[in-house]
């Protein structure tokens, strides 16, 4: 018997092919967008298509990698520090904690900003071409930051999120950050999915409705009010009940500590046991799970903005097929 996650109102399945699998980070971001697209309602999907330039064909997966491509542009300099959050005083794996406040600029802040911007234009409507372009940027950043936030090393400041933590990977040099951004995903697709990203995606959707199902139904539950203190975007975003970046970052930071940084050793080849632990059954196919979690949360927020009053937690249905 097959099980598939489906959303009552969402019928469109948009699975773009992934051509650029070797460009770092693109694959992960594309996959989060593809998962999200599966969980958009028809109405949300229609509005997303309206917001994005025709080039994107209404696909979140095509828009998701964009923020990495404009990092060098002066116009977007403000956004370059919004891809991650540093965690002062945090020294994984020995001591880990995240005590977040809204005084800085980081991925949490950025997500609130982008969500508030989307919500603002949803309420008032863009009037000028400039408004429309700000809105499109906000959507592209939103989708990207949701992916970044669910990569544990983007919530752990140590050695620049592992960028400066050398490792071995298939006997060549790498670093911990790159392994999480792309190398584990690529190897997993090669080893277990016949190098076919679409099978990898299909399996994630399938696992959402079986082995991950008990926890998956919780992924979109949270309480935004817990983190309202000093949150400059609270008033604009408080109606969005599935928006909880502080909570998510805190749990990703804990994962960075308990898993990503555990037994860090620059001489170890990370393509062996470590890869098995991160991608195999023993830990619930963790790497795939994080991608899926990011996509489902992304869709929940977009549905709340563009197709209220039904937040995701009331709409996901796990139905048996065939
Ligand atoms: C907020 O966080 C920053 C960075 O972690 C820290 O330097 C600052 O002291 C914190 N401010 C408050 C009021 O806690
Ligand atoms: C919020 O986003 C806008 C672009 O939409 C940007 O100009 C601004 O600097 C951001 N604010 C913060 C505090 O990051
Ligand atoms: C889901 O969330 C509820 C409420 O927070 C909690 O009691 C329950 O243990 C969670 N279930 C899983 C499988 O994580
Ligand atoms: C893999 O996980 C096991 C526990 O399940 C642990 O003992 C081992 O240290 C881990 N190996 C690596 C390389 O992370």
From TrEMBL:
Instruction: List, in alphabetical order, the Gene Ontology terms for molecular function in this entry.
Output: endonuclease activity; hydrolase activity, acting on ester bonds; metal ion binding; nucleic acid binding
Its keywords, alphabetically, are: Disulfide bond, Endonuclease, Glycoprotein, Hydrolase, Metal-binding, Nuclease, Signal
**Cited InterPro entries:** PLipase_C/P1_nuclease_dom_sf (IPR008947), S1/P1nuclease (IPR003154)
GO terms for biological process? DNA catabolic process
Signal sequence extent: 1-23
Q: Which CDD domains match?
A: S1-P1_nuclease
Question: Is Transmembrane one of the keywords UniProt gives this record?
Answer: no
The UniProt entry's sequence similarity note says: Belongs to the nuclease type I family.
Designated name of the protein: S1/P1 nuclease
* Organism encoding this protein: Lobosporangium transversale
